Amino acid sequence: MSRSPLLLALLLLMRPVAPAAEKSLLIEAPMAPPAWAVLERRLLAANVPACQEFYRKYYDAAGNLQAVLRWGADDGPDDAFENFNRWPELHALGASDEILRMYLTGWEGMLRQYTAARTTEVPIARQGMYYRDFCVQSDWMHHGEGLQLFNRMGLSVPTLPVYQERARRFAGFYMGEDPEAPNYDPAHKLIRSMINGSRGPLLRKATATDWVGDPFDPTGFDAVHGEHNFAQFLAHYEEYGDVVGDHFLNLVATTLPTDAYLLANEPKYKAWIAEYMDAWLGRMKANHGIIPSFVDLDGKIGGPEGKWWNNAYGWGFSPVNPVNGRRENRNRIPRAIIGFSNALLVTGDQKYPDAWRDMMDAVNANGRMIDGRMQYPTMYGAEGWYGWQSRPWNVGALELWYMSMRPADRPRIGENEWVGYLEGKNPGFPEKALEGDLATVARRREVVRRDAVPPERRLADNMLNYNPATIAALTQLMLGGLPPPADGSLLSARLRYFDPQRKRAGIPEDVGALVSELSDTRTVVTLVNLSPTETRTVIVQGGAYAEHEIVSATLDGRDLPVNGSAFTVELRPGAGGTLTLAMRRYANPPTVRFPWDRG
Question: Which residues of 371-403 are buried (b: 16+ CB within 10 A; e: fewer)?
Fold first, then answer.
């Protein structure tokens, strides 16, 4: 008898107790319960019942979304899957296994729903909006948003067979391996259209209907983008026709081969990521350091006319918003940095963040004095640079600093409360951030309770802002990481934790962790056990995916040589201590395998 993915996941969680890592450290010194640790445990706990209420309101027992299913960039499949944004990370931080059960059930339910859902007017989706568990066609702003759940569930269930099979299949859609999805041109090293998917690329101009979906009357619905009638839906996408050729948005697609590489470090996935990203680095070099938004099917930057800024969501994309009648700048270049981060993760080569830094400098080199004030551009079109602002262009500045850890990259970020805390300038940040996130959970839980919209008048995106899962402070403080944005990226973290007693990802019960200092070679973290009666054991891992080598751990003058990706800490009841970790970043092949499953 076949087993459901959910049952398999639960069986994996019930495996025998895992052995501790060979390198271990004992912490016995008493520590008064810090306010930040108490708040961390409260926040992990508060998320769970709030998410349960959300799930019961908007999903049935089989995981089916209780809403009107539509195709389209406004309220389509990607928004449905976004309802579980941050749930995989929440579980991987240490929240209840109930979070895992709900999102796995919802994932399978929505895959069934959108595979069965069909359009009448949109040609590509007449046989189903999903095919082989993947959206048939979309751009990588929306693909990435809809794949956040899948991309990050490997943090908790990396050995789940259906996850592993899908990770390899999805990667194949973009590596030229799948004849049903000929998205990639290996000769020119490009993805052939900005709109692509499990049925291949769109190789003609896109219509507004391709973007919006079948006609419907929005009366009585909450159209969150402000449209009042279907004509406005169509008008929104009138200028979105140019999609053929490669586009910097497609760099988000590198997450799929990265997912597959993290399973077993099969060389072909790393090779493809490097091949594709190196082709883009070459295009940047040929384009004065700036990544183009249009590469034609022959591999020519900007096509025969050299319009490197072309294509929807490109450098020169400023369409009219029919709701207000104004042109709005919609350059989606912030998403492109995902490719640079993925390439660094799998290769450890700093040439990828270096290229992003060079682009920032190249854009800002076009600053000029306007009305006596220095202004910097954000857009480029047929008339040259535009979209002027008073501050230097700093898209991706936080991510760049996090990847490089170069002090020279720090000023690009500007004011940032978390970075200021890591620099010792904002000591009250942990409590403030955790209390703020607790308030967010409570506020969103109350909104869910007050929501009286019936399922037949509910669109897939209506409850995105009601989702109570709140992890920003926990990610920054516990992991020393960047809270994953809504873009399809993986988790970037300096540390992760595993519970060897329960044999699962996440920090053990009663344990708090606070990362208070980061540099290229050093991490400072405080661990505390709030239980007055129980000893807790935690495995500390370097990096979200064991990519960082922990050279040694120092506690109260005692040095523990680690020289590996993880070590074990045993915390006696009520004990705590501050560890200084010497580290080599991006030194190891990244993996989603848990510490006890690695050699």
Answer: eeeebbbbbbbeeebebeeeebbbbbbbbbbbb
Q: Is the dihedral of CA 434, 437, 443, 447 positive or negative?
A: negative
Q: Given phi > 0 = left and psi -120 to 50 = alpha, else beta, which region is 303?
A: left
- Whole-number Å distance between alpha carbons of 274 and 346: 9
State the burial class of residue 456 (Cβ atoms within 10 Å of its Cβ: 0-12, 13-18, 19+).
exposed
Q: Confidence band (pLDDT; 50, 70, 90) for 191?
A: very high
C-alpha to C-alpha distance for 130 and 178, rounded to whole angstroms: 16
Return mean pLDDT, the chain: 96
Q: Which residues pair with 499 in a beta bridge?
A: 504
Q: What is the pLDDT of residues 195-213, one digit of tens each?
A: 999 999 999 999 999 999 9
Task: Give per-residue pLDDT as tens, 228-255.
Answer: 899 999 999 999 999 999 999 999 999 9
**8 Å CB contact between 547 and 586:** yes
Q: Name which of 199, 146, 155 is nearest 173 in CA terms.
A: 199
* Mean pLDDT of the region 301-322: 97
Q: Which of 141, 396, 383 is nearest to 291 (CA)?
A: 396
How are beta strands 24-27 and 566-571 bridged, if at all? parallel
Whole-number pLDDT of residue 370: 92
Q: At what angle do helices 267-286 and 255-264 cross, to 10 degrees?
A: 150
Instruction: Judge whether 359 and 284 are in contact, CB under 8 Å.
Output: yes
Distance from the Cα of residue 35 to its chain's centroid = 29
Would the pTM of this model clear 0.90, i.e. be above it? yes
The C-alpha torsion from 94 through 103 and 155 to 279, rounded to 10°, is -140
Report angle CA 246, 247, 248 to the nearest 5 degrees: 135
d(CA 510, CA 254) in angstroms, rounded, equals 37
412 vs 360: CA distance, rounded Å: 10
Mean pLDDT score, 308-331: 96
Read off φ and ψ for residue 364, nearest 5 degrees. -70, -20
**Residue 512 phi/psi, 5° resolution?**
-120, 155
- Amino acid type, 196: N
Give strand pairing partners of 61.
none
* Residues 376-400: tens digit of each pLDDT: 999 999 999 999 999 999 999 999 9
pLDDT value at 6 more than 90: no
Helix, strand, coil: what percent of the chain each, to 5?
Answer: 40, 20, 45
In whole angstroms, how far apart are CA 545 and each of 156, 167, 324? 11, 16, 45
Is residue 125 scored above 90 in pLDDT? Answer: yes
